[in-house]
From TrEMBL, chain A:
This is Vacuolar protein sorting-associated protein 21. Residues 181-203 are annotated as: Disordered. SUPFAM superfamilies: P-loop containing nucleoside triphosphate hydrolases. PROSITE patterns: RAB, RAS, RHO. InterPro entries: P-loop_NTPase, Small_GTP-bd, Small_GTPase. Residues 182-194 have a biased composition (Polar residues). It comes from Scheffersomyces spartinae. Pfam families: Ras (PF00071). The keyword RNA-binding does not apply. The gene is VPS21.
From TrEMBL, chain B:
Residues 52-62, 199-209 have a biased composition (Basic and acidic residues). PROSITE patterns: TBC_RABGAP. One of its GO terms (molecular function) is small GTPase binding. Signal peptide: none annotated. Gene3D superfamilies: putative rabgap domain of human tbc1 domain family member 14 like domains, Ypt/Rab-GAP domain of gyp1p, domain 3. Pfam families: RabGAP-TBC. InterPro entries: Rab-GAP-TBC_dom, Rab-GAP_TBC_sf, Rab_GAP_TBC_domain. Residues 522-733 form the Rab-GAP TBC domain. It comes from Scheffersomyces spartinae. One of its GO terms (cellular component) is site of polarized growth. Residues 38-74, 199-257 are annotated as: Disordered. This is Rab-GAP TBC domain-containing protein.
Length: 214, 812
């Protein structure tokens, strides 16, 4: 397998309140794993993942930022040149949706004009079995959808735990990124080095990475 | 747990799958005679059930996957109901006519029956799988333990050790193991209650037989032996299919282990099988000890051969129970696994490799068996062989500064060592005073011996270091004629304060010695607590009883809103702090470890102590590390050490008004990263700067800011190195210059690697994930790092730095 077309690089930043599952989304996307207690991100974490959409190869360069409020002032550093942003909230925490709204606003004002923003309501697994009396869900789908419509955002509800919709978010972002932004820079020549690395559909094949203990 | 088999059961790829199953089965349902029999029952019952006139059909079915499935899974049937036929799950491979026949013959044409049967079979399979996984986790833990006792062993070497211990051990203790196994199985939740009771009764019944004399045991063993022989000779086909089945079941997650484990097992089993020639005929009333005889007796390590290396500064928390009581745990909660039951390093970090798998199993089994919040600290990067993160020689070597050869060290076990001489010379260099006689360094043939020698040298080194510290402290006490508050903040009690910082070093013998000792190998665990307390100034700040008072204040529900929100953030992060450490997250019992609540109280109290700072993510990690710093550390001490660190040691900003962790300091910290990038990086490493920043466009602040906010806790694969860095930081007169120097020194360590990288994101991937990355253990050598950072530090003029800071703050 090789990529006939140059790889499109997408610089992507994740924003959102603490513990909404930003790092978990990335972990699910990058290594198809889930950790119940993901250590809090300090500063920002950097990860990459490649994905083939149709005949396009897209490389996501992901900056996963810290969620604690006091680190918010660091965020501009990371979203300044980003082409895409995932604004994440927790569907069971209204405050996180308020925060998401603020992030969207800030991005609209401060980030580059053509940034692609996806609004992501995470922890869908917690509300999957919601019944009428006992609502775990605190942010309705409609609320999310409305905000997305108003601001022209992509919108998804996801579960990093089950993997639900996670890949879709990134695919949707990839589709929105015009071919033109394919990086002509230094990285272009090295792009093929990671080919065939990912097979998200396969699931569970990351066991290959493990080996004997000593 | 000590008496558990090291390589008990299921990992087998030769035709011993059967025995493996039997061990496992014995663990679950107790009496083993049954397990042996049940193995045959399904097959037999199946055949007898079928009419003679349909023999042809039967035969073809027998050859079909369905039947082989039956023979493959003896244990599953006995887990549920004795003697029940097991249909298996690959019916789909049969032709339609076969299936029709099967339905007609077995279920009288009732499809519903077939479906039920299939569902039941499926459930059995699942159970079996779960049991196997659980079992193998424990086995693997033990395997790792063995490995870490000996260092990085190749399977060949493990094989040798096992052989050796097999020869030396007798058969005693097997029955205890058996009982323990059964008892353990009975306590496991995943057995249906009914089965549990049944098994319980069986065990009771069998007990008398389980406490036998030697001869009896031998007989039993014999019986099982011959059975096994019989079995494997009779139907190799069955053997094969069992083997296949074992392999298949394990393939999802444990495959990787098989290779490591198979070789030694194969050997001891073969050996053991071969030793059955003198057996007489067996009356074969399958005795319960069949299980026992399947268990290799290597778990009773010969004290001589298996003696663990002396670990002077090991953090063996032998009195962990006391600790737990200390920390307010109810005694019933206090059963934390002894660290040595599992593959954890001396600081209690699980073997990440294992945890990864357990975690995966857990999440995939929807948590039926272990609902634990099993986790790994950092899993996103591939880090296969991080076994060496454990107390393998490499990690321990971090104890003093001969990490220089650590890179080579990783490879020692597998490649034949020809560079022992190098190691010797390294040792000589760094440990001139340790008496290394040439004899003990003679190059032996096996790496094990070399590792042992290195272990000895390491111990000698540690001993020597500790001796030096003891002597040093004694001499300081003698000279200053006092026994407490010897050093003071940053060690400044040792000097009279009239000189400039540089002169302290040259003028004061004791100050210089302190520096040298810390540079050499950090503070030994034994002295850590008291010296940290002095160097951070925690001693001076400490007010007895205040810690408790702050904590009590913090749990007042009427606390102010800001405080409340800080505490909420602490709560969010507590579960997420060192989830891969047994003292914070007791995975196997699905509850927090003893240090969890200590961490909580320290962070809570700190929020109340400094409400204007509150809680900043990253503190959890720093305090967490400190808690692991020395045995029996008291949370109050750690609290004051941390307070001292924050109040006295860490840089302040805006003419000292802003504390390092203050919310508003972030801007200044960011600025300092800019200064590193713009001024000191090109100054100290012009070529690397050109490559990374000018050519690739790397933004260094993206990398270094994480290091600063976490005080480098994420930079080092082993805690030992971090402790030394921390010790070193405590001596810094101008801490910001130390932090800058350290940041750049880390880059310097990776210089040659970074020169070979041409993609900006690869630089981020490496430098932002240093301790996910095995590269870091090869490149971050404490002595070199400290040497480099000391050199850099001398070149940073604090006055100049302040000028830059002023200029930058105007600019932004």
């Amino acid at each position: 397998m090789s990529f006939p077309n140059p790889v499109t690089s997408v610089k992507l930043v994740l924003l959102g309140e603490a513990a909404v599952g930003k790092s978990s989304l990335v972990l699910r996307f990058v290594s198809n794993e889930f950790q119940e207690n993901k250590e809090p991100t300090i500063g920002a974490a950097f990860l990459t993942q490649k994905l083939t959409i149709g005949d396009r190869a897209i490389k996501y360069e992901i900056w996963d930022t810290a969620g604690q409020e006091r680190f918010a002032s660091l965020a501009p550093m990371y979203y300044r040149n980003a082409q895409a942003a995932l604004v994440v909230y927790d569907v069971t925490k209204p405050a996180s949706f308020v925060k998401a709204r603020q992030w969207v606003k800030e991005l609209r004002e401060q980030a580059s004009k053509d940034i692609t923003i996806a609004l992501v309501g995470n922890k869908y697994d917690l509300v999957e079995d919601d019944n009428e009396e006992d609502l775990v869900r605190k942010v309705n789908v409609e609320e999310g959808q409305n905000l997305a419509d108003e601001e022209g955002l992509l919108f998804f509800e996801t579960s990093a735990k089950t993997g639900y919709n996670v890949k879709d978010v990134f695919v949707a972002i990839g589709n929105k990124i015009p071919e033109a932004t394919a990086s002509g820079s230094d990285t272009a020549t090295n792009q093929t080095s990671g080919e065939g690395r990912i097979d998200l559909s396969g699931g569970g094949n990351f066991n290959n990475a493990t080996s004997g203990c000593c | 747990m000590k008496d558990q088999p090291l390589f008990g059961s299921e990992e087998s790829s030769d035709n011993l799958g059967y025995s493996a199953r039997t061990v496992l089965l014995g663990k679950i349902s107790g009496p083993i005679n049954e397990t042996v029999n049940t193995h045959q029952i399904p097959n037999d019952s199946f055949t007898t059930e079928i009419d003679n006139d349909t023999r042809t059909a039967t035969d073809s079915i027998r050859d079909s996957p369905v039947v082989s499935e039956t023979s493959r899974t003896p244990s599953a049937s006995s887990i549920f109901e004795k003697g029940e036929t097991f249909l298996g799950s690959n019916l789909h491979q049969l032709s339609d006519s076969h299936i029709n026949k099967l339905i007609r013959l077995r279920f009288g044409g009732n499809l519903l029956q077939l479906v039920k049967q299939l569902l039941l079979d499926l459930a059995k399979k699942e159970t079996e799988l779960i049991i196997l996984r659980r079992h193998s986790f424990i086995k693997e833990q033990e395997f790792y333990k063995l490995c870490s006792e000996y260092g990085n062993l190749s399977s060949l070497e493990v094989d040798k050790i096992l052989q050796k211990s097999l020869q030396k051990t007798d058969n005693s203790g097997v029955d205890e193991v058996l009982l323990e196994l059964i008892g353990g199985a009975l306590n496991e939740d995943y057995l249906p209650t009914k089965e549990k009771q049944l098994a319980m009764e069986r065990t009771k019944e069998d007990k008398p037989e389980n406490i036998p004399q030697r001869s009896r045991k031998r007989e039993k063993r014999v019986s099982s032996d011959s059975k096994l022989h019989h079995k494997s000779n009779k139907s190799t086909k069955e053997g094969e299919s069992q083997q296949e089945s074992v392999g298949r079941i394990r393939s999802d997650s444990q495959m990787s282990q098989i290779t490591a484990v198979t070789a030694p097992r194969a050997t001891w089993l073969k050996k053991w099988l071969n030793s059955t020639e003198d057996l007489q005929d067996v009356s074969g009333h399958g005795t319960p000890s069949v299980l026992g005889s399947f268990i290799p007796n290597i778990l009773k390590p010969n004290n001589e051969t298996m003696k663990p290396p002396m670990e002077l500064n090991s953090i063996a928390r032998e009195n962990s129970d006391e600790e737990i009581l200390d920390s307010g745990y109810s005694p019933s909660d206090s059963v934390i696994p002894q660290a040595n039951d599992f593959s954890v390093d001396k600081y209690g970090f699980y073997d990440s490799h294992n945890i990864r798998k357990v975690h995966k199993n857990v999440s995939e089994n929807s948590g039926d068996v272990h609902t634990n919040k099993a986790n790994i600290e950092r899993g996103s990067m591939t880090m296969h062989n991080d076994a060496s993160k454990n107390s393998s020689p490499e990690a321990e070597f971090g104890e003093f500064n001969i990490l220089n050869k650590s890179a080579a060290f990783v490879g020692i076990a597998t490649t034949d060592l020809t560079n022992a001489k190098d190691i010797k010379s390294e040792k000589d260099k760094s440990l001139a005073k340790v008496d290394i006689n040439g004899e003990s360094l003679t190059i032996h043939n096996t790496s094990i011996q070399k590792l042992k020698q290195l272990g000895e040298l390491h111990d000698l080194g540690n001993m020597e270091m500790e001796k030096q510290w003891d002597q040093y402290i004694k001499s300081v006490e003698g000279h200053y004629k006092k026994s407490n508050n010897l050093f003071g903040i940053r060690g400044l009690n040792l000097v009279d304060g009239k000189d400039s910082p540089l002169e302290y070093y040259s003028n004061n013998k004791y100050y210089r010695q302190l520096h040298d000792l810390i540079d050499k190998g950090g503070i030994p665990p034994k002295h850590r607590g008291s010296i940290w307390m002095e160097l951070t100034g925690g001693d001076n700040l400490r007010v007895n009883g205040e810690f408790e008072r702050y904590y009590q204040l913090s749990i007042d529900p009427n606390a102010d809103k800001l405080i409340q929100s800080n505490l909420n953030q602490v709560d969010l992060d507590l579960n997420r702090t060192m989830p891969s450490n047994i003292f914070f997250n007791n995975m196997l019992q699905n509850k927090p470890g003893p240090l969890y609540s200590k961490l909580k109280r320290i962070l809570y109290a700190f929020v109340l102590y400094k409400p204007e700072i509150g809680y900043c993510q990253g503190m959890n990690k720093i305090v967490g590390n400190l808690l692991l710093g020395y045995p029996n550390i008291s949370e109050e001490d750690v609290f004051w050490i941390f307070v001292g660190l924050v109040e006295e040691i860490l840089p302040r900003f805006k003419t000292s008004k802003l504390n390092y962790f203050d919310f508003q300091s972030l801007q200044s910290i960011k600025q300092d990263q800019k200064i590193i990038c713009d001024i000191y990086f090109p100054k100290f490493m012009p070529k690397l700067h050109e490559h990374l920043i000018q050519n690739l466009g790397v933004q260094v602040e993206f990398i270094t800011i994480n290091w600063w906010l976490l005080l480098f806790t994420e930079n080092f694969l082993t805690l030992d190195v971090w402790f030394k860095i921390f010790d070193n930081l405590l001596l810094s007169i101008v801490p910001e210059t130390k932090l800058i120097a350290l940041s750049l020194a880390v880059f310097k360590m990776f210089e040659s690697l970074l020169f070979n990288i041409d993609a900006v994101d690869d630089v981020y991937l490496i430098m932002n994930n240093l301790n996910h990355n095995s590269l870091s253990k090869m490149n971050l050598k404490y002595s070199e790092l400290i040497h480099t950072s000391d050199k850099f530090e001398l070149r940073i003029d604090p006055k100049k730095l302040n000028e830059y800071r002023l200029a930058y703050s105007l600019e932004y």
